[in-house]
């Protein structure tokens, strides 16, 4: 990371109103910026053995205005006084009811939270207080062997966090193995994770290592953890707890030394309460929870992200033009695709920003034209035709080059370009680029 990023660090703290919560058995806990989970499960920070409380019921955390209460998909609901709430901020002493148990929330005065000086971690950048706090947590946990669950909407940078944690860990020279839990074929799931012996099932011609075995001495990143098939969950939990695996069709156990990182877009609280995700596995993997806020909640990150993107595409001199354009034209955009969407828009803009007026055309085209129909809808002027040709040639060049760099692997292309796999495929089809 260049010095530029460090010298631009300005925001060093934020203000929150935490306080305390008194549990039904009379204990008092401090509520701070890291969430406190309330539930029936023994792993919850406030564990309440009340059958009407869901295993993961709700959570409390300090935010700017007071103590935020968030229901996590409980069956019987979370109440403040007599009002059932999904999400609310408590600013005065209030009674919180879960099942038939009562807790008392008491907000305290606002206090300053030091968010650390760092405005980057690995290949992540961000100036907002929330991201600075994420970076300071990551700096602390990366060198440990703690497992980390990374939460956030699509495109918020979960995979980059995982890779950056691996790169800053003692296992950095070991393998970094990614398993996309959402695309595990059910029939092969167990073998994919734990490996198999030769002849274990039809088609098992070779003895194979699974993802856990491959990750030995390194990091296993379970992407889309919420999609992990239910029947695999207890097996994975056992393997992680006992630090050993048994291949499908095998009888011997092999020791493994693997650090686990995981990510999910799904609300795992809801999944657990619906019985689709095991809470014991959740607490085993979520020793540390890191939440990446949506980009719309941290727009102050935009300039540093654009600078980073311009640097990546080799056009650092265009950063200020792109930032000014985004502020002027997309100030009210709420970035549903988060940083991935910003990276896409900013890289196209940065690449063509040298031509006067080009950004308007580029962004209008990339945002409004379906990929397969980049054709003028009305009478084309020579100017717009020229722009279209420039974009087409940029896209063709970009994806041809990307295909070479990723050896034709679409997942790798998606990773490198920060796009969804189906978008990458659509561009390859559009320009008839051969994956070989
Ligand atoms: N803080 C950041 N700094 C720099 N680049 C970032 C940051 N966050 C995300 N990115 C970029 O945004 C793109 C998307 O990131 P990533 O693939 O990690 O998102 P994700 O949360 O894993 O998305 P999904 O849930 O869809 O898999 C990547 O190109 C990544 O480099």
Automatic annotation (TrEMBL):
Residues 124-351 form the Sigma-54 factor interaction domain. It holds the Pfam family AAA_lid_14. Gene3D superfamilies: 1.10.8.60, 2.60.200.20, Homeodomain-like, P-loop containing nucleotide triphosphate hydrolases. InterPro entries: AAA+_ATPase (IPR003593), AAA_lid_NorR (IPR058031), FHA_dom (IPR000253), Homeodomain-like_sf (IPR009057), P-loop_NTPase (IPR027417), Sigma_54_int (IPR002078), Sigma_54_int_dom_ATP-bd_1 (IPR025662), Sigma_54_int_dom_ATP-bd_2 (IPR025943). Residues 36-85 form the FHA domain. Keywords: ATP-binding, DNA-binding, Nucleotide-binding, Transcription, Transcription regulation. Signal peptide: none annotated. It comes from the Bacteria. This is Sigma 54-interacting transcriptional regulator. It comes from Pendulispora rubella.
């Amino acid at each position: 990371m260049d010095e530029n990023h460090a010298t631009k660090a300005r925001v060093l703290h934020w203000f929150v109103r935490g306080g305390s919560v008194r549990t039904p058995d009379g204990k008092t806990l401090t509520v701070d910026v890291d969430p406190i989970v309330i539930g029936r499960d023994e792993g919850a920070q406030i564990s309440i053995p009340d059958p009407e409380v869901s295993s993961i019921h709700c959570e409390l955390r300090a935010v700017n205005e007071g103590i935020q209460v968030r229901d996590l998909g409980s069956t019987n609901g979370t109440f403040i006084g007599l009002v059932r709430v999904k999400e609310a901020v408590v600013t005065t002493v209030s009674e919180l009811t879960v099942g038939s148990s009562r807790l008392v929330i008491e907000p305290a005065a606002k206090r300053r939270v030091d968010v650390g000086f760092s405005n980057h971690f690995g290949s992540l950048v961000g100036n907002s207080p929330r991201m600075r706090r994420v970076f300071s947590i990551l700096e602390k946990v990366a060198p440990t062997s703690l497992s980390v669950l990374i939460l956030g909407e699509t495109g918020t940078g979960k995979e980059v966090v995982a890779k950056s944690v691996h790169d800053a860990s003692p296992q950095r020279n070991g393998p970094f193995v990614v398993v996309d839990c959402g695309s595990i074929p059910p029939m092969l799931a167990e073998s994919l994770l734990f490996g198999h012996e030769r002849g274990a099932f039809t088609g098992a011609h070779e003895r194979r290592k699974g993802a856990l075995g491959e990750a030995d001495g390194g990091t296993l990143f379970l992407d889309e953890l919420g999609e992990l098939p239910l029947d695999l969950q207890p097996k994975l939990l056992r393997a992680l707890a006992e630090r050993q695996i048994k291949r499908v069709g095998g009888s011997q156990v092999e020791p493994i030394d693997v650090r686990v990182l995981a990510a999910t877009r799904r609300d795992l609280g809801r999944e657990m309460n619906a019985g689709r995700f095991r809470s014991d596995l959740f607490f085993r993997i979520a020793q540390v929870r890191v939440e990446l806020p949506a980009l719309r909640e941290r727009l102050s990150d935009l300039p540093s992200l654009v600078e980073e993107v311009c640097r990546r595409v080799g056009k650092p001199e265009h950063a200020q033009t792109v930032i000014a354009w985004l502020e002027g034209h997309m100030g009210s955009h709420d970035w549903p695709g988060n940083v991935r969407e910003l990276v896409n828009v900013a890289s196209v803009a940065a690449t063509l920003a040298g031509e006067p007026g080009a950004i308007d055309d580029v962004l209008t085209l990339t945002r409004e034209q379906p990929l397969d129909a980049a054709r003028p809808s009305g009478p084309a002027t020579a100017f717009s035709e020229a722009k279209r040709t420039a974009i087409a040639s940029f896209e063709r060049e970009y994806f041809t080059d990307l295909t070479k760099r990723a050896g034709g692997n679409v997942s790798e292309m998606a990773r490198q370009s920060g796009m969804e796999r189906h978008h990458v495929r659509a561009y390859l089809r559009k320009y008839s680029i051969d994956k070989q």
